[in-house]
Amino acid sequence: MKNGKRAILTSAIAALLLTVAHGTVVAQAQKPPIKLGLITPLTGPLASYGKAQELVMKLAVEDVNAKGGLLGRKVELIAYDDQSNGANTPGIYTKLLDVDKVDLLIAPYATNVTAPIMPLVKERQKLLMGNFSFQVNAKVQHDMWFNNAPWNDAKGWSEGFFDMGKKAGGKTAAIFAADAEFQQNLANGARDIIKSSGLNLVYDQNYPPNSTDFSSIIRAVRASRAEVIFVACYPSEAVAIMRSVNEIGLGSQVQLFGGGMVGLQFTPIMQNLGSLLNGVTNYNSYVPGMKYPGIDEFFKRYSERATAAKVDPLGFYLPPFNYATGQMLEAAVNATKSLDHKKLAEYLRKNTHQTIVGPISFDKNGERAKSAVVQAQFRNVQDNNLDQFKSTGKQIVVWPDSEKQGDVITPFDKARKAT
Question: In angstroms, what CA-CA distances link 147 with 6, 142, 352, 368?
């Protein structure tokens, strides 16, 4: 009899626990999801990078939901294509806010498409997580903007470049840059550093964005006899510039070439240019050999997804920082137990956040409190070989000392032939 009563009691408790568990699942399922709004370039010249961003944010959302979501609610990603065009972004963000009623916002990739939405998010008092833009908040001064990029101001992009050039014996400098907000911000920072460093600026030229023929500029740079050449450009321009450099040449006097060329970090462009990259010293966010907790596991998972989706299979430049954005939002919501944008912004501003790209903290403008940009030099890159970029030795971090993997090789012609 006692055994029978014990069995009945055990069954009753099990049934009760099952009912509670089922009720919890049902309750969570009945709660509306937390909506995460994202605009990213899925078409147009920046599409390959936008597709990688969307893939990573889906991965981040899956990971959060696997842990039970946020505040007992699942997270839903709502993504739209900005067509790589800044004219489209304000309207799409208005739709995310007014029609989709999203709870959290992530900015699109790049400066020139993010800048147009800054007045909108400031007016609406919305938290916006930035994505590798540059100085878009310098004038707007929105106190709920937080950029995932490793840089702070222009000094972090070009300080190391010009320091290495000067130590190599360079006395003259040249700058050429696209006449667009991002590239001009970089160029202006480079101009300031040249003035303070004592280098003589012998060539300074802007060109129309999306230019395809750089032969006249490269000939003019060569004629200037500049020894340290800083370039601020976007991906399609970077490809055309490198082809012109290799066809025309820069002269044996050049010590360093590169600096602020966006695009040379992306797998399709690295694979396309191959050996034409050799000798270039350029900014970067991550190259193989840089170690952070969780980064190797992330790349393993990312590569599997990216290969299947036919997007950037390496994903060194942007994807880990996109995932870090998800980590920071998750931590902020869990810590504040809130979706209130002011509370989230206060948490993000006051704390250091542990991510797969290392610790991140922000200054008063929502940029990195301390720059983590590196300068890396391409060496011994072969043509038509994707796998070579997975290992160390093809992009060598040469600045700063804290991340240094080797010494910079100068002059430029010698670096092009280095093995």
Answer: 60, 12, 14, 7
Rounded Cα–Cα distance for residues 186 and 135 (Å) = 9
What pLDDT is attached to residue 66? 98
Count helices and strands in the chain by DSSP H and E runs = 14, 14
Nearest to 182 by CA among 129, 131, 241: 131
DSSP state, residue 168? T
User: Do residues 275 and 381 lie in contact, with contact meaning Cβ atoms separated by under 8 Å?
Assistant: yes
The full DSSP string for 135-157 is: STTTTT--TTEEE-SS--SHHHH
Helices (H), 31-73: 47-66
Q: What is the pLDDT of residue 303?
A: 95
Cα separation of 366 and 144, whole Å?
A: 7
Return the pLDDT at 29: 54
CA pair distance 416, 409, nearest whole angstrom: 9
* Cβ atoms of residues 229 and 250 within 8 Å: yes
H or E element in which residue 114 lies: helix 111-114
- Tell me the per-residue pLDDT of 27-53, one tens digit each, with 9 for 90 and over: 445 799 999 999 999 999 888 889 999
- Across 125-157, b (16+ Cβ under 10 Å) vs e yields ebbbbbbbbbbbbeeeebbbbbbbbbbbbbbbb
pLDDT tens, residue by residue, 349-371? 999 999 999 999 999 999 999 99
Task: Say how far apart CA 311 and CA 50 lie, in whole Å.
Answer: 9
- Quick: pLDDT tens for 172-214: 999 999 998 889 989 999 999 999 999 999 999 999 999 999 9
Angle CA 27–28–34, to nearest 5: 135
Share of the chain above pLDDT 90, in %: 86
